[in-house]
Amino acid sequence: MFYKFLKFIFLSSLTFTWGCSENKDNAVATYGCFASKCYNTTAKNDSGREFDIIECESGDKFLRFPGLYNEIPEMRKDLPKGVEVNAPIANHNDCGAINCKYEEADICIDGVTRDENGNEKNVGGCYPVIDCPEKE
Questions:
Q1: How confident is the model at residue 82 (pLDDT cuts 50, 70, 90)?
Q2: Please, what's the b/e burial string for 68-103 (b: 16 or more CB within 10 A of its CB; e: otherwise)?
Q3: Top-confidence residue, 47 or 25
Q4: How far apart are CA 117 and CA 19, in angstroms?
Q5: Quick check: helix, strand or coil at residue 124?
Q6: Which of 18, 52, 87, 133, CA to CA, is 20 to 30 A from 70?
Q7: Rounded to two decimals, what is the model's pTM?
Q8: In the beta sheet, which residues pair with residue 19?
Q9: Torsion of CA 54, 55, 59, 61, to 10 degrees
């Protein structure tokens, strides 16, 4: 029992010390954060319809104007492969699309959709709208 207590104290101290130490090489574990340059471009879906997208050097792709795709999730099946509906954040503490800026106020939606089993699923939240340089 005393061993478990000492182990707890040691690990807690180690965690606290590691968390408080100065990060000299800027190597922080940033879960859910990516930093990449992104560009405005277009992509076509399987039926040849063209979409305005944001394509990042990391390989991620997002819709430039997500509007109806947030309000009517069933429309997402028409998107080109690999294109996400909502854009990443614009440059924020070296996180997100580092060469982009916010274009307008976030798009906020609130609603309910049904999955393939007929279960209701809440859909909602606020999503950024960003503008990136054109891809050359």
A1: very high
A2: ebbeebeeeeebbeebbbbbbbbbeeebbbbebeee
A3: 47
A4: 44
A5: strand
A6: 133
A7: 0.60
A8: none
A9: 30
